[in-house]
User: Which sequence fits this backbone?
């Protein structure tokens, strides 16, 4: 079985887990999810056919980032996003991609017209979309995306099945990140006419700027995050004429919205603005549904919470305030765990606080209680991180296909690293994109209570973090481990320039999916560093892992059950994450290994269409 086969098979196991979630009907995306007993194969097969495509040639659209959701007892909802894919004939079709495997795409921001005029998900499936007024802006988005070299695009009216409450929950909680990750955001202003062109055949700003300033788009709740989240926002008139972008129009936008330029430009992280200030940005904005006055701000405050339509505007806003407060309290608690010693009056000019005990910033609660012990790999990492005579931090990279256990291994290593009696620190950064990397460096400064943590310039904070890592002794920390999880190719140049360049007591551990990224980050140090491929465990070890997960003794199994289990483990490619999901579902639904295997195999061979052509 090739690596590609394993990857596609694992991707399909993730799709199965999404079905488990949607059958469970659990609303809160961040709470534990359990599969109801009695969920049998016929019902599951029917639901699977309705919700998800099979692993056809589009299976490579599905990928997974294990560090976000390796839980020990329950299936986890893998965030998915539907995109519209354009073709050479000007038509388009729906595709579905897991959140961390999306292609580059454009995204539309607009104001909704009457519901009877907007194209819905069901309209696309039924082939009735072209008869509606709202189809024009969907076509515009697709054509503009094609002109910008983008094959995929997203429109909220039709890419979300709003009749599916679970899917709607997921979409609203993911909305900010979807706009943030878009390559282009097109704002269609249906109430801004282009009017006249100047002598150079360019739109004259003075003719449309008054209508632009008075546009309904600036008064709606949902468009606040659609303005702030994307890197590139381009504005178009109702005739589809370009008016400018967020950068060229920033002064006008600032005057209209009173949003600080630092937030519009992305120069400052949103958490640097107070809760009250961010609330003020939405003060005069309206939403059609009362509760959306709170729900449209989830991304602005970087929180997730269940949607309860019918609770009313005030209750929704109270819950939002409570969530923001709990998030702040969590950050304060994490800082207290560092156990810093207060400065005495005689050292009031000292720029750093002193640490007297070690701390671990890694998400240790995600470490599976049934973790497959990889002694050989842990020993290799430990040896690679031995102190050398050179005054540079030792680096090591772990690479491998999704689901093989890279993040679990990294978390396990952090515990070993802190077994040393020396005052040590572990810093964890999620590195799937550049914004998360910047957030990681800002969090590091917050954890050590660095005096530069509130500087508005991103580069200043990054430099401050790097310089501190090169000389952590000023805070009493004698050893540190910087763990860069899920490093993506888009962040390589950043790490080449900004990782610590000196300090032999520092360690850097990288996890990534590709060998090329692993080598690139390791070689950036100027000397040979270990790049370790993590492969699936042996069949026997994988079987032991499964049995521990379901709480069954191997001696209690019949020879037939043992053979069925072996077949299932091989079919799952021995991938720990896929095995754990299978074990969890079998336990919760009381399925036998044989019935689950038949269900799994039967679904993989089904011919459910993965895209729906719009007629």
Assistant:
């Amino acid at each position: 079985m090739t690596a590609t086969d394993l990857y596609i098979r694992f991707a399909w196991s993730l799709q199965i887990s999404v079905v488990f979630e949607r059958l469970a009907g659990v609303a809160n995306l961040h709470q534990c999810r359990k599969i109801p007993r009695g969920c049998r194969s016929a019902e599951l097969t029917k639901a699977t056919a309705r919700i998800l495509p099979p692993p056809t040639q589009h299976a490579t659209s599905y990928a997974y980032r294990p560090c976000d959701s390796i839980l020990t007892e329950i299936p986890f909802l893998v965030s998915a996003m539907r995109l519209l894919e354009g073709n050479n004939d000007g038509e388009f079709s729906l595709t579905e991609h897991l959140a961390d495997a999306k292609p580059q795409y454009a995204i539309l921001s607009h104001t909704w017209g009457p519901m009877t005029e907007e194209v819905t998900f069901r309209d696309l499936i039924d082939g009735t979309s072209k008869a509606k007024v709202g189809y024009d802006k969907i076509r515009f988005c697709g054509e503009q995306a094609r002109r910008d070299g983008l094959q995929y695009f997203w429109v909220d009216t039709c890419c979300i099945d709003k009749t599916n409450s679970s899917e709607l929950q997921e979409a609203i909680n993911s909305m900010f990140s979807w706009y943030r990750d878009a390559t282009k955001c097109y704002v269609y202003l249906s109430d801004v006419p282009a009017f006249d062109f100047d002598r150079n055949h360019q739109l004259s700003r003075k003719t449309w700027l008054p209508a632009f300033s008075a546009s309904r788009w600036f008064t709606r709740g949902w468009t606040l995050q659609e303005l702030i989240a994307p890197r590139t926002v381009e504005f178009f008139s109702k005739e589809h004429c370009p008016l400018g972008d967020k950068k060229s129009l920033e002064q006008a936008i600032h005057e209209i919205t009173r949003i600080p330029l630092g937030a519009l430009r992305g120069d400052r992280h949103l958490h640097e603005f107070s809760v009250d200030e961010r609330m003020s940005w939405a003060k005069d904005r309206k939403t059609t549904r009362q509760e959306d006055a709170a729900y449209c701000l989830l991304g602005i405050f970087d929180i997730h919470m269940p949607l309860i339509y019918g609770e009313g505007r005030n209750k929704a806003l109270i819950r939002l305030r409570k969530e923001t407060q709990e998030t702040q309290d969590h950050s304060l608690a994490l800082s207290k765990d560092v156990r810093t010693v207060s400065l005495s009056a005689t050292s009031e000019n000292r720029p750093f606080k002193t640490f007297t005990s070690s701390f671990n910033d890694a998400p240790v609660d995600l470490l599976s209680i049934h973790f497959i012990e990889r002694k050989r790999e842990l020993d290799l990492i430990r040896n690679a991180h031995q102190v050398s005579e050179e005054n540079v931090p030792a680096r090591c990279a772990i690479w491998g296909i999704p689901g093989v256990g890279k993040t679990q291994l990294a978390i396990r290593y952090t515990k070993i690293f802190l077994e040393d009696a020396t005052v040590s620190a572990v810093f964890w950064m999620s590195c799937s994109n550049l914004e998360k990397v910047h957030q990681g460096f800002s969090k590091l400064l917050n954890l050590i209570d660095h005096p530069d943590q509130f500087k508005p310039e991103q580069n200043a904070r990054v430099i401050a973090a790097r310089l501190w890592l090169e000389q952590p002794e000023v805070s009493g920390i004698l050893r540190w481990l910087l763990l860069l999880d899920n490093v993506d190719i888009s962040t390589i140049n950043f790490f080449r320039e900004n990782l610590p360049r000196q300090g032999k007591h520092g360690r850097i551990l990288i996890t990534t999916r590709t060998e090329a990224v692993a080598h690139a980050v390791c070689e950036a140090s100027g000397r040979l560093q270990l790049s370790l491929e993590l492969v699936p465990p042996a069949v026997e070890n994988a079987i032991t892992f499964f049995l521990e997960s379901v709480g069954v003794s191997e001696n209690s199994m019949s020879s037939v059950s043992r053979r069925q289990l072996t077949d299932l483990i091989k079919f799952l490619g021995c991938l720990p994450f896929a095995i754990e999901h299978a074990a969890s579902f079998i336990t919760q639904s009381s399925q036998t290994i044989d019935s689950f295997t038949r269900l799994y195999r039967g679904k993989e061979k089904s011919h459910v269409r993965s895209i729906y052509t719009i007629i």
